[in-house]
Amino acid sequence: MSPVIESEEHQALRAAVAALGKRHGRDFAPETLWDEAAKLGYLGVNLPEAHGGGGGGIYELSVVLEELAAAGCPLLMMVVSPAICGTVIARFGTDAQKTEWLPALADGTRTMAFGITEPDAGSNSHRITTTARRDGTDWLLTGRKVFISGVDKADATLIVGRTEDARTGNLKPCLFIVPRDTPGFEYRPIDMELRASERQFELTFDDMRLPSEALVGDENAGLLQLFAGLNPERIMTAAFALGMARYALARAVEYARERTVWRQPIGAHQAIAHPLAQSHIEVELARLMMQKAAHLYDSGDDAGAGEAANMAKYAAGEACVKAVDQSVHTLGGNGLTREFGLASLITASRVSRIAPVSREMILNYVSHQTLGLPKSY
Fold first, then answer.
1. So what's the pLDDT on residue 65?
2. In this structure, are residues 102 and 88 in contact, taking their beta carbons and an 8 Å threshold?
3. Which of 62, 96, 220, 325 has the fewest CB atoms within 10 Å, counting from its CB?
4. Beta strand pairing call for 138-149 and 200-210
5. What pLDDT digit, counting tens, does each position of 235-270 carry?
6. Other C-beta atoms within 10 Å of 288: how many?
7. What phi and psi values does residue 149 have, to the nearest 5 degrees?
8. 317 SS3 class
9. Angle (nearest 5°) at CA 203 between 80 and 105
């Protein structure tokens, strides 16, 4: 099946999720929508059937998130719980970890946050200072994380740390499942101006003791396991951004058709119509790259998916910011009122340029990895 043309199954999934989103709308209750989406099988559509999931891939999960966002009711934790954490555990977790977590992540009864960002490391994952050292059969984890979504409600957090390589002495990535009630696991909310149902948190832990079974997969394959989760994160962030852009454009187009100032709808004027048309084109182009990235990832091409996922996230972020800006501008003063539901997207759309990786770091990635240009750092 070509990535450009969706199957009837995908079209049906898209239509069904769109109908669900339309029922909930912009003033949705996140927990109610989460529960309903879970009961319909949408939250675990990418997870293995053997563990209660839908047996699909990131493509199907991105369809769900995009359509919910296009209806004005995106679920941010979809990016984290089933896409990052569920994928990593499904691919690399032990049988016990899969049995314990995947069915619950699939049916939405449990959620998992993801902790990678640190205050002093920024986008440089090689500077992560959260370290894990062995103490008998246990692990002791010490570190600090920032901008971690939904920790207060998540049952556990998948923490990215580093262990010392016994042969080289170098630090290498490793991942641990840390239940929220683990002694020594401390979290506090970060005061954000961004209005969102999921709060952001700072995490701290000092020699937090974890059992050996907290380690996900092979401690010597941490980097591979980490990127297995980061590519879906970028694809899903693109889906989130594109859905937001579609929501904004739909509101603007509807307004431009109906709003009449000089004997005809303002949408008849090219100064209004052309920027909206341009935004629509940019959104569609970004969607194609997102679909390509999802197909590459689901086919097992991690290297190809890495390049495409970064490009998709970049393109979607740019398209989203421009679409929201033009939509608000189309409505003028009405674009800043709560009635039309666009003003809050001005801030939210910027997130798609910043998180989980900035557009500048994506440009670095493409210039180094794709074009072969030398690094400046």
1. 98
2. no
3. 96
4. antiparallel
5. 999 999 999 999 999 999 999 999 999 899 999 999
6. 13
7. -80, 135
8. helix
9. 25
Count of CB atoms situated within 10 Å of the CB of 162 = 20
The per-residue pLDDT for range 24-47, each reduced to its tens digit, is 999 999 999 999 999 999 999 999
pTM of the model as a whole: 0.95
Max CA distance (Å), the chain: 80
For residue 150, give the nearest of 212, 197, 83 by alpha carbon.
197
Single-letter residue type at 191: D
Mean pLDDT value across residues 322-335: 98
d(CA 337, CA 328) in angstroms, rounded, equals: 10
Regarding beta strands 156-164 and 186-189, do their DSSP bridges make them parallel or antiparallel, or are they unpaired? unpaired
Q: Give yes or no for a contact between 218 and 92, defined as CB atoms under 8 angstroms apart.
A: yes
Q: Rounded to an integer, what distance in angstroms lies between the CA atom of residue 113 and that of residue 80? A: 6
Instruction: Tell me the backbone φ, ψ of residue 209, rounded to 5 degrees.
Output: -85, 130
CA distances in angstroms from 193 to 81, 154, 189, 196, 344, listed in the order given = 24, 22, 12, 9, 11
Q: How many residues does the chain have?
A: 377
What are residue 158's DSSP bridge partners?
114, 177
Is the torsion defined by CA of 15, 114, 57, 230 positive or negative? positive
**Residue 219 has which token pair?**
């401690």
Q: Check residue 97 and give its pLDDT.
A: 97
Give the contacts of 166 (CB within 8 A, at least 6 positions apart): none
